[in-house]
């Protein structure tokens, strides 16, 4: 009955898409994305610290990230949704989650990995978990591997 009414996440998506009152530009090597510092601060403790000290920048350079990764990152920060992603995209977002201290994104990516965990990708996921010292994910992958290779 109430599903036809808009919700806050739809409002945030609309705010992002319309670029209304955006106050920062995120810049990659080949694209720019107008955004809202408040939304970035809400999701990222690293950006919250950056914007809280002194005069915050008008442009945030993310030149080491691909356009698609930044686009998906922003969509996540505004809507809490990963959308339809593949393993490679989730891996890139997982790295960004650690770099920018975005706990919700780290958890969502970890859930995606675990839902799609197979013998063929377990070693890569273990490497990723070790690289980021993600003890919880490492333990779950280790359990998966142990169960698969028990005698």
UniProtKB/TrEMBL annotation:
Any one GO MF annotation of this record: zinc ion binding
Residue ranges constituting the BTB domain according to the UniProt record: 22-86
InterPro entries xrefs: BTB/POZ_dom, SKP1/BTB/POZ_sf, Znf_SWIM
Annotated ranges, domain SWIM-type: 94-141
Record key words, sorted: Metal-binding, Zinc, Zinc-finger
Keyword Metal-binding attributed: yes
Gene3D superfamilies named in the record: Potassium Channel Kv1.1, Chain A
CDD domains, A to Z: BTB_POZ_ZBTB_KLHL-like
Family annotation (Pfam families): BTB
PANTHER family documented for this protein: SPECKLE-TYPE POZ PROTEIN
Protein name per its UniProtKB record: BTB domain-containing protein
Lineage: Eukaryota, Metazoa, Ecdysozoa, Arthropoda, Chelicerata
